[in-house]
Amino acid sequence: MIALERNRTEATIPAAFRQPRLTTRSQLLADIFFAGRISGKIEFDSGQWKPAKDRLKRDSRGKCAYCEAPTSLVAHGDVEHFRPKSIYWWLAFCFDNYLYSCQICNQTYKGDNFPISGAAAAAPAMPNAMPTGALLSDLLIALTHDPLLLDDAQLAALWDEEQADLPNPYFENPDQLFIYEVDSVNEEVWIRSAGGARADRAMAAAHAFLGLNRPELLAERYINYVQLEVFSKILAEPGITPAIRTLSEAEVRRMQALNEPFVGMRRYFARTLGLPRPPP
């Protein structure tokens, strides 16, 4: 897992999730809620968040925001609701509740799980029936998080009291939470806690509800680690020629580009092995 950036501009936020269409989406959310009161179940059409997928995929460079495997290799990519829509119905159309995830992390492991260590966020106060006029306008505003008007810090503050165990890479840097451990005997690389209460909670949740230490990831990470280890040995050779050194250092830097798989792990081992780092 690696930190992601949400670029908050009209060019990068899909039109479906900013004004004037944001109000229409908020009205749809209210309609779905009140229909659910009658049917006993709040139901969504997945097509409503599909317009977010391309932007989210670009943000994470075509990789799962959780496991960092290319979705073209492990499974199709989903628009993942960080806070599950089955619990946080009012965030079902919230662009800042979305990230790009492989189906294995999202559907096989995470599902509707969302462990917290604090107080659960309260749902918006809803009237007994759909209001009209100014009351309806106020309700639609209350149901809306405009990604162009709020910054990361303001959005994170909305949910700080929950103390979510799972890290959201848009709002929290995974580099502060995870380290990587090589098991050369079994040819595996494990994600471990970086130490401390917050990192321990994040690691336990990521293991249980994202499957970040599932067997296929352990093996794939090891293959990527070995490549770096080989370059560390090449670069440590006293007789290495300038041409080989230049090529090797360039390849090590390329392997740490953000579009590469498991780049969080690759950058960790580049640091620990004393290898060249990518440009800032």
What would you note in describing this structure?
The protein has ten helices and four strands; from the N terminus they run αααββαααββαααα. With 280 residues, the protein is mainly alpha-helical. The chain folds into two domains: 148 residues, no CATH class; 96 residues, no CATH class. Strands 1-2 form a two-stranded antiparallel sheet. The protein has a two-stranded antiparallel sheet with strand order 3-4. The longest helix has 22 residues. The protein starts with 20 loop residues before the first helix and ends in an 8-residue tail after the last helix. 33% of the residues are buried. The mean pLDDT is 93.
The main β sheet shows up as:
2 strands, antiparallel
Low-confidence stretches: none
Instruction: Summarize the helix and strand pattern as letters.
Output: HHHEEHHHEEHHHH
Figure out the total of helices.
10
Strand order of the largest sheet: 1-2
Radius of gyration from the alpha-carbon trace, in angstroms = 22 Å
How many E strands?
Answer: 4
Helix percent reads: 40-55%
Beta-strand percentage?
A: 5-15%
Shape: elongated
Number of domains: 2
Going by helix content, strand content and strand pairing, the class is mainly alpha
